[in-house]
Structures are given as C-alpha cells and as structure tokens.
Amino acid sequence: MNLLTTRARTRAELAAGLESRGFDDDVATLVLDRLVEVGLLDDAAFAEQWVDSRHRHRGLGRRALSQELRRKGVDSETAGEAVAGLDADAEREKASELVRRRLPSLDRVEPQAAARRLVGMLARKGYGAGLAYDVVRTEMAERGAELDDAEPDLEDEEPVAGPRP
User: Fold this and answer.
1) What segment(s) does the record annotate as region Disordered (predicted)?
2) What does pTM read for this prediction?
3) What is the C-alpha separation between 59 and 55, in angstroms, rounded?
4) Measured on CA atoms in the order 66, 2, 45, 121, is the torsion positive or negative?
C-alpha cells in the first residue's frame, strides 16, 4: 500500500516491489488480484494517466510514451490503446510548442543546422520524422528562415536513444 500512496503504479511495478520485500509469489498474486478487484490497481487507467501527464508536461511523443509504458510493465496492447488516445492535433501542437521554445536559442545558427538540431530534439522526444520535419519547416518559415527543399540531413546528429530522464 505504501507504493500506491505516492503515485499510481502498474501491476508489474507492484509485483517487483513485493518480490523485493521477500513476499512469496502466490501471496503477491493474491494481493495484486485483490487490488485489481477493488479498483486500486488498473494498468489501463495508469497508462492513460501516464500518457496525458508525460505528453502535457514533458512534451513526449507517441513512440517515447509507448517505450516508457513498456518499461513500466504495461503490456503492448494496453500501451497502444493509451497512446492511440493521444490526439494527433495535440501531438502536433506540443511539437510546435517545443520548437518555438527552442528556436530563439538558435537564432545565430545556420538554418539547416538549426533544423537538424530541432528535428533531432523532436526525435529524441519520440516524434515521428515526418511530423518533426513538417513542424520544424513550418515554425522556421514563420520566423523567416529559409530552408532547402530537402529534409535536414541527420547523419551529423547524435544517435536517438529515447527521451532523456
């Protein structure tokens, strides 16, 4: 119960907590089943809440959110349903907001290099390449920056390792 007082948890997180405290697997299963039965443990509700919170506050995209949920022990189907609930317009708006916030610090950088950095930032936050290119191109055009017709070359960027903690 102490694990549930700070924030919602997944079944896998609670199972790991019980195991680390030396509880027998049969006892842990009974306890977890009872928590599900009374509504204190719900991986689907956790996933929806996680997606909403991490998208709104950290600006994470679908791919990064799916990875985080899988690391938390949420099954792929439940994670997929939660991420599918993320509105495409809301995802695009959050990506645009992230780019607009970062753009002023790149005023003195050559536009193609700035575009590579911005696309890389969005990729690390879990946004798809097509969305990232489009958002960066749109936001930079609104600031008067001219980009080549080709998509930014990302070979000079760091490898994408997922969102930063």
Assistant:
1) 143-165
2) 0.76
3) 5
4) negative
